[in-house]
């Protein structure tokens, strides 16, 4: 636990340094452009501005990647995705996720997000850390069925976490043999 706190402290310090560096670059750019605009052609100034913007974007991307690596190391990482079959007779409104009977996350969907999921999109619903060993997952799906009536359905599963990342998918599909009834599954991804 102490190592995680040390990493988090280092990450926070790096984040602060990145903000300071961005502010210094912005101030430098403002000072530089104010004093040298007459000497530098506009095209060159625009090119240098774009390069500075790109450098800041790249630094931010690297910082976010480092933050994810520190907070969710691969040995303890669990990632849960959600997918909806395009023919599912169910309009998803929200989902609630519990891992080992503890609240993990919930999500409320917009019409646009539901359409993206039905067109084959997959949502990364949750990223977290788990110890090795046995675990339970429970997902509560809220939405409207084919008859446009609201209902809730729960899917449960047990899984074993080993060293390395673990990937699970929550899936909403039509029930085999009963295409007007949805089924809710939790499956392990390889």
Task: List key phrases describing it.
single chain; four-stranded antiparallel beta sheet; four-stranded mixed beta sheet; alpha+beta; 190 residues; 38% helix
Structure in words:
There is one protein chain. This protein is of the alpha+beta class and 190 residues long. Helices cover 38% and strands 42% of the residues. It has three helices and eight strands, in the order ααβββαβββββ. A four-stranded mixed sheet has the order 4-1-7-8. The protein has a four-stranded antiparallel sheet with strand order 3-2-5-6, with no helix packed on it. The longest helix has 35 residues, at 2-36.
Could you tell me the strand content as a percent range? Answer: 35-45%
Strand order of the largest sheet: 4-1-7-8
Radius of gyration, whole Å: 24 Å
Shape: flat
Instruction: Give the number of DSSP strands.
Output: 8
Computed structural class: alpha+beta
Q: For the report, how would you describe the main beta sheet?
A: 4 strands, mixed
Strand and helix order: HHEEEHEEEEE
Q: Mean pLDDT, as a whole number?
A: 82
The N- and C-terminal alpha carbons lie at a distance of 29 Å
Helix content: 25-40%
Given as residue ranges, the uncertain stretches (5+ residues, pLDDT < 50) are none
Number of helices: 3
